[in-house]
Write a structure and sequence with these properties.
Two copies of one chain form a homodimer. By secondary structure, chain A is of the alpha/beta class. The first copy, chain A, contains twelve helices and 24 strands. In chain A, the strands form seven sheets. The first copy, chain A, has a five-stranded parallel sheet, covered by helices on one side. In chain A, strands 20-21-24-23-22 form a five-stranded antiparallel sheet, sandwiched between helices. In chain A, strand 10, helix 6 and strand 11 form a beta-alpha-beta unit. The radius of gyration of chain A is 23 Å and the shape is globular. Chains A and B meet through helix 8, strand 20, strand 21 and helix 10 of A and helix 8, strand 20, strand 21 and helix 10 of B.
Chain lengths: 447, 447
C-alpha cells in the first residue's frame, strides 16, 4: 500500500507520522515543493523579532528525522502539478526542472494556503515581501539586516499584520499600517478593536485606515506606497491581507471545493473520491456552532485533521467534530482571543444574535497588578445558546478562551455556561470570572 | 415579607443584594457575628505578604454601602445562637452581651466554615494564630510586625498553608512546614506534588512531613512545636489543617447535614424546611461528575448559591447544576489547578479510573520563555468519560483548568474533549495544547 502526501507541513507530516505508527509497512511518500518541512509558521513573527535566533529554530522535526527514524520517503523540492484520478497518479516537477510521476493507493492533498497578494502596480518590487512559508521568513529576516530596514509599511489588518507590527517594533523598525477599510480586525467587536488600536498606537505604530492603496514604486533603496491622498516611504512593504487555500490542484482534478474555495471534505476528511483525502489550510471543516462548512486555516485543525486522515485510512476511523473558530494572538502587551461566532457571522447563519460587552478585571478585588479585561459574548436570543466570545486584556485572556471553545463544542446555553464551576484564586481572577460575569449579563438578554 | 440571613460574607451578602434587586420592598436583615462583611478571605495571604496594605483593602463592599445604598438592615456584632423553626424565630447575642430575637418569613443560613484547630496541648498559646476571618488576618498581620516575627511554623498542607508559606517568605520570615502525613497536598497527583515540594524548598521553605506534633509550648517570646523526634522554635505558629462547616446552628434546629457534616441542601438551595435555605461554606452541593453530595467550601460556589437562594425565594427559581471541585492557587512561581476527581475520589464513587500524567511545555517549540507544564488527567475506563484533571506549571495553568471544568459540566468523554478546538498561538502553548496531549494519551487507555 502506497500513501502519497502532497505537502510536508503540519497536516501532511502529521498524517505521515501517524500512518507510519498505525501501519509500519505502508510506503509513505511525501512531495514537498520547498526544502522545509514541519515548521512552526505561526512562530515566524516572534522569531523575526530576534535577529540572533536562526529561522531554523522553528523546524519542529527535521527532514532527516522523518527520513531516517520514521522511514518516510520525504522528497523536498518536488512540486506536484497534476493529479490523474483515473490512473491514480500524481505528476510534478522538481526544483531542478525534472519531471516525475508517482502512483498512489491513497492520496492526501495537504497543500496549505498561500498569501493573497494585492493586485497593485509595483507589487513585484524587491523589498515587497509576504510571509507564509519558512523560506519567506528566511528572506524577510535577511532583508531586514542586509538592507538595514528602518521603516516598514504593513498592508493589512489580520493576525499576521499585527504580530509583524509587534515584531518589527521590537527591532526598532518604524511601522506604518495602511489599509483601505476603516476597522482594525474587522471580525473583532468594535470596543475590543479600539483597545487593540490604542495598544498599537501606544507602541509607536502609525495606523492609516481608510486609505486606498494605488501602487508601490521603488527609487534607489526607497519603496513608496502610494495612496489617494498621501504616500508612505519605507524600505520594506509587508502585504498581509490574508491567505487563500491552495486548492488549484484539487480543482483541476475535478474535486469539489466549498466556502472560500477550500477543498471540500466530509467529517472523515475524505474529498468524495474514496482514495483522496484533504487536510490542513487547503481544506474546509464543519463548524461546531453552525454545523455548516467553514474555512479557518489554523494550525490545531491542520494537525488534528492530518492525524485523522491516517486514522481514517489505516486505523479505526476518526470522525471530526469540527472547529469552533478559536484563535488567539499576542500584540505588544495585549492578549486577544476568540472562539465561535461574532454577531455578524451568527446572523448570516440564521441565528438571532445578541451581544454584550463587559469590562472586568484580571485579578481579585485589591489584588496588586490588576488590569482591565474586555469580554464580548454572543448568544442566540431564541434558544439561549452560547454562540461565541471574544476577549482582550493584558493577562488571562488566551487560555480562558479554551473554556468557551469547550462550551461551544458541548452546545451549551449561556445559562448553562454561567453555571460552570470555574476556579478562582485572587492572582488569577475576580470571584466571578469575567466569562461568568459576561454570561450573567448575556443570559438576561436571551430566551 | 422578612428575609433573615445569618452570616454576612459571600453567600449571605450575595443573597441579600440579589433579594433587594428582585423585590425591593422585602425587609432584609443580616446578622453577622463579626464586624466585617463581604470581604475576600482568599485574598488574605496575598494581603499579609505586603506590610503596607491595610487588611481593609480586602473589603469588597462596605457595611455602609449595604446599609445606605442597598437598604439592607445589616447588624454586625450579632451572633445568632438558636433557630426556632416552630416560631420562625432566630435568637442571639450581641457583642455587647445583649440578647435579641427576630422573626423571619424566609431564613438563609450562611454561617460559613471555621478552621479546624488541632487538639494539641499549648494550642491556646499567644502567637498560635489560625487564619479564616478578616479579623484573624488583622490579628496575624499586626502580630507579625509587633512581635518582629523572624520564624514561623505552619502546621498543615492545604492551599492556605502553602499560600501562607509564600506570603511569609515574601516578608523574609523563615518558614517551616510540619505535618504528620507524608504527602504535600494529598489530593494532588504525586508527580505534580513533587514539583510543588521542590518549589517550596527552592524558595527556602523547610518541610518536615511525617512528623507527629505532640504539643506547643511557650517560653518568653519563643514558641516551640514539639514533635516525636525534634522540636521547632519560632515566634508564630499557623495551624492550617483545614476547615469545617459551621453547621451547629442548623443541626440544633433539626436540619439535616450530609458529607463532612455540611448542611444538606437540594439543587434549589433549600434545607428541607420550606422556609430555610443554606448556602456558602456551611452547605453541601451536588458534584457534576458524581451526581452525589460534595462539600468543597470555595468562593465561587458561595456566591452562586447565595444568589440562587434569592432567586429561589424572590425570583423565577434557579436550579444549581453543582460543582466540579475546581480550584487553583499560586505558590511562589507555580500555578496549581484542579477540576473534577482524582483517581482515589473516582474509585470511591464507583468509577473505574485511569490516570495519565504528561509533561508538556507552556509555549510553542522554540518560543522564548518556554517552561514545563505537568498535567494529570483521569478518565473512566468503562465509559471513556473525562473525570478530572490537575495541572502544575509556571504559566498558563490557572485559566486552562476552566476548559476542564466546562467539559466536566458537559459530561464529555476524553475523546470528545480531545476534539475541542482549543486556540493556539506560540506565546501561549504548543500546537497541541497540553490538555489535548493529555487527552490523547488518556484516550488510548479508556473504553
Amino acid at each position: 500500500m502506497r500513501f502519497v502526501i502532497i505537502g510536508g507541513d503540519a497536516a501532511g507530516m502529521s498524517a505521515a507520522s501517524r500512518a507510519g505508527r498505525l501501519q509500519p509497512d505502508t510506503e509513505i511518500i511525501v512531495f514537498e515543493q520547498t526544502e522545509d518541512v514541519s515548521y512552526s509558521a505561526c512562530g515566524m513573527p516572534y522569531n523575526i523579532a530576534n535577529p540572533d535566533s536562526p529561522v531554523e529554530d522553528l523546524v519542529v522535526r527535521s527532514a532527516k528525522v522523518f527520513r531516517e527514524k520514521q522511514g518516510i520517503d520525504l522528497r523536498t523540492g518536488h512540486r506536484v502539478t497534476a493529479i490523474d484520478r483515473e490512473e491514480k497518479l500524481v505528476k510534478g516537477e522538481t526544483a531542478e526542472g525534472d519531471t516525475f510521476e508517482c502512483n498512489y493507493d491513497k492520496l492526501l492533498i495537504a497543500t496549505g494556503a498561500s498569501p493573497v497578494i494585492p493586485d497593485l502596480p509595483g507589487i513585484e518590487n524587491e523589498g515587497v515581501l509576504p510571509l507564509k512559508k519558512l523560506e519567506d521568513g528566511r528572506i524577510l529576516k535577511a532583508y531586514l539586516t542586509e538592507h538595514n530596514v528602518k521603516k516598514a509599511v504593513i498592508i493589512g489588518m489580520g493576525y499576521i499584520a499585527l504580530e509583524m507590527a509587534d515584531s518589527l517594533r521590537t527591532r526598532d523598525v518604524e511601522v506604518t499600517m495602511v489599509k483601505p477599510r476603516s476597522r482594525l480586525l474587522p471580525w473583532l467587536n468594535e470596543k475590543l478593536s479600539d483597545v487593540v488600536w490604542k495598544e498599537l498606537e501606544d507602541n509607536g505604530v502609525e495606523i492609516y485606515s481608510g486609505h486606498t492603496i494605488n501602487s508601490i514604486s521603488k527609487t534607489n533603496n526607497t519603496l513608496t506606497v502610494h495612496c489617494d491622498d498621501r504616500d508612505f516611504r519605507c524600505q520594506l512593504v509587508l502585504p498581509a491581507i490574508g491567505v487563500k487555500p491552495c486548492s488549484e490542484l484539487a480543482k483541476e482534478a475535478g474535486l469539489k471545493t466549498s466556502i472560500h474555495d477550500a477543498i471540500s471534505v466530509d467529517r472523515f476528511t475524505n474529498t468524495g473520491d474514496p482514495d483522496i483525502y484533504s487536510a490542513g489550510d487547503c481544506a474546509d471543516a464543519y463548524h461546531v456552532v453552525t454545523g455548516k462548512k467553514s474555512w479557518v486555516p489554523l494550525a490545531v485543525q491542520a494537525n488534528r485533521a492530518g492525524r485523522a486522515v491516517a486514522d481514517n485510512i489505516f486505523g479505526d476511523g476518526l470522525e471530526l467534530q469540527g472547529i469552533a473558530g478559536s484563535a488567539m494572538f499576542r500584540v505588544f502587551g495585549l492578549e486577544v482571543a476568540r472562539s465561535g461566532l461574532n454577531p455578524y457571522e451568527a446572523g448570516e447563519h440564521g441565528f438571532d444574535p445578541v451581544e454584550i460587552t463587559i469590562e472586568s478585571r484580571s485579578r481579585a478585588h485589591a489584588h496588586p497588578g490588576n488590569t482591565t479585561m474586555h469580554v464580548a459574548m454572543v448568544g442566540d436570543k431564541q434558544t439561549g445558546r452560547l454562540l461565541g466570545a471574544q476577549m482582550v486584556g493584558r493577562e488571562g485572556v488566551a487560555h480562558r478562551i479554551h473554556a468557551v471553545a469547550v462550551a461551544l463544542h458541548a452546545g451549551m446555553t449561556v445559562a448553562d455556561f454561567w453555571q460552570c464551576d470555574l476556579a478562582y484564586a485572587p492572582p488569577f481572577s475576580p470571584v466571578w470570572d469575567p466569562l461568568l460575569t459576561a454570561a450573567n449579563q448575556l443570559s438576561k438578554k436571551v430566551t
